[in-house]
Amino acid sequence: MKEAILRVKNLCVDFHLDNRIIPAVDGVSFSLAKGETLGLVGESGCGKSVTALTIMRLLQMPPAKIRNGEIYFKGQNLLNMTDEEMRQIRGKNIAMIFQEPMTSLNPVFTIGRQISEVLIQHQNMPKKDALEKSIEMLKLVRIPEPEKVVKQYPHQLSGGMRQRVMIAAALACEPEIIIADEPTTALDVTVEAQILGLINELKSRINSSIIMISHDLGIVAEVSDRVAVMYAGRIVEYGDVHSVFTSPKHPYTKGLLEAIPDINMNRSKRLKEIRGVVPFPDEIKEGCRFKTRCDYVHEKCLAEEPPFIQVGNNQVRCWNYLSQ
Amino acid sequence: MLKYIVKRLILMIPVLLLMTLVVFSIFYFAPGDPVSRIAGPNVTEEVYKSIQKKYGLDQPFVVQYLRFLKSVAEGDLGISILQDRPVLEMIKERLPVTLQIGLLGFAITFAIAIPAGVAAAVKKNTAVDYLCMTGSLLGIAVPTFWLGMLLLYVFAYKLRWFPISGDGSFKQLVLPGFAIGLTNAAITARMVRSSMLEVLKQDYVRTARSKGLLEKTVVYRHALKNALIPVITLMGLRLGWILGGSVALEIIFSIPGIGRLMVDAILSRDFPVVQGSMLVLTSSIILANILADILYAIVDPRIRYG
Ligand SMILES: Nc1ncnc2c1ncn2[C@@H]1O[C@H](COP(=O)(O)OP(=O)(O)OP(=O)(O)O)[C@@H](O)[C@H]1O
Ligand SMILES: [Mg+2]
To answer: Is A190's pLDDT higher than 60?
Structure first.
């Protein structure tokens, strides 16, 4: 395996609310190799954004609190860094694209300024050069008439255009890691395909690693090298994209795959869905997190949480594979 | 934008007309006779008539009012009954003093309210926040004229750092400027704080942090510029209050500003002076509001006036 640029170890993040503690991320570990794209999938509320924001150290604390874990970026634990050290990494070494393009740009600053400020901050670029580079970046993300757009404000652009601007700003300093948190969820399908194509193309150009977060397995399958499937604050299956998609092991992964519509599918066959809803992170105190929705649940699952078990090429948290 | 400004200026006319009509009617119908005030009680019929004629006071209401409007339109605000000088000249003498107090008050407002409000928001629920908010509550509870008297007593009477009365030199304007600035800063700081708290939660502030910008850039540029938008509106609305406060303070500090001029004129029924100073005060409040709206559009690019 190639050298890991990011290594997350046993990350646990709680939200301390008035009357209870919600373990939103509970024991998440994964690594990201240089030039690799890691897909992070799971239903809404399973802790994907919290994981991403913790890596960026952008979570509001309180209410959030990191109970445990280490995040190594090129051998240094990000969680032990001072605010100032972390600030210098953000935007320069690790950049993030957010889920909400409509609200993620500052309404009172021009597009040009919002891209060039990253360059001015991290590369000490003079204002004029930074603006020129911003125009170049806008060209790169295929925004028409970039010279005009740099002078415009966010409200003058569509959602797809705004997300392209976000991508341009995130890529401006050619970061080693890009965290894309559902970059296309708020956009329509044709725009989605364009944006994904763009991210893939730009990634190979600057050879950065990507954490691609999505609740859509189709997207993850398209762009990732490896996949981590999250459920209720934990990773339940982990492996390379081919083996996870062709031979899923965890009942949850199987369920997710069966819920994807297939164009070649027989019309008479109904789409399957996973029964029940995601439990709230603090609902399940013991046993497997998926026990309330699993079709293969047995006694052991109710009492004890499964560890990772190597099954074929995948790591799976499921008691059903213990015998193999 | 230009079209909008012109429109707003034209809309000023009916407001000013209404204002002058109200002031005019009050003076016309209120008891008390300006002529006998000038001439004294033991005046002959002949002299009385001539004075009445000189100021046009013998004409019916409508004629008097229309005459007044005509001369205003020609830039003539009439002649003071008491001092026998052109009203415009008197206002020109007094207006700069009042404007200086107002501007000083504004400068002090912003110099205190913005850092205090931002600090309170950023350090929410800490000693800094409680200190700022307690100070602000105190400032809201204290009336401006009372604070003015307090400042006058401590800094002019006891410490003798500033003159107790005078001719309107800048040194004399400092204390009233502070009285206005401090009370106005109290309410503004609260507004800045709550507006900042709202803005700091926004996604674009998180984006700014994700770019690795300095925290002071995130707070004082990205967040503050957005947070100031509602504050500008508030300030536009507070202008009338500031000028009103200045009138009271000019009397306490015996400063020859336009507020003093107007109050003296009301007491002595010097009608042209009252009308003239009201006209100037009202116009400046409306103009300042237009200015606030223009500023609003400059800060917030989403606002487009048509
Ligand atoms: N600010 C917060 N305060 C309290 N709880 C929070 C907060 N942010 C997240 N959570 C909790 O953390 C859990 C994980 O949230 P997260 O945003 O990571 O989900 P997600 O996987 O990104 O979902 P989505 O697909 O909807 O973006 C949720 O159950 C949520 O209730
Ligand atoms: Mg999310």
So the answer is: yes
